[in-house]
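Q: My labmate handed me this sequence with no annotations at all. I'd like to see what the chain might look like in three dimensions before we decide whether it's worth expressing. Could you predict it?
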Amino acid sequence: MKKQYLSFDVLDESDKDFFINDSWCDYCEKSDLGITDPKIYILDEKQYLEGVCKICGHKQITEVIFTEIKG
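A: Here is what I predict for the chain of 71 residues:
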């Protein structure tokens, strides 16, 4: 199946900020390093965020999981 890219610009500012700044890098093995060039896409009915680590420059891909907080 082919990737279906979504527009990152239509996200709420708080969602954009979260996706760009709260990331994990497998190469640096650290969290919250941030990414550049963010892209969101759907593949096989799952949503992914792709970007480049601000520290080491390696590509990162993370599955986006939506949870609902009940309270």
